[in-house]
Task: structure prediction
Amino acid sequence: MFSAYSPRAANAYQRINVETSMHTIDQHQLVSLLYEGVLNSIATARGALARGDVLGKVNAISKAVRILEEGLATSLDKVDGGELAENLGALYDYCMRRLILANARNDDAMMQEVMRLIEPVAQGWNEIKKLGAQASPDAAATAVQPVLAEA
Result:
């Protein structure tokens, strides 16, 4: 009556679930997920490095770099984003270069550095949504500026 567990079927279900959720989440939530993905990938790479799992480290760092490059950097509004978009673009570029170097040198400190740079930006981004629900958008943007200045 029931068939054995099939990883292929589970992957198809997960893919459909992700595609469906992509249509129902807002842009703010999507960027939050991208930040979460970068941080989780770096944490995975650090764990793989500690275990001596070279392939796992390479794959996790590659995923983090792709999210930074194809997800976060390409979504910046370089026309109307002004100095903030320019600074975030420079931060993402720096983080990508550090991750690639960390991968080549097996350097955990560089991966930690990138996490320390991305975490406050991700926290600030999440605070925008919380503050935006409580106050006007201008108040939320003003409140996040100190968090971005720390990065």
In short: The longest helix spans residues 108-134. Helices lie at 7-24, 27-51, 54-73, 82-105, 108-134, 137-150. The chain has six helices and no strands. The chain has a mean pLDDT of 84.
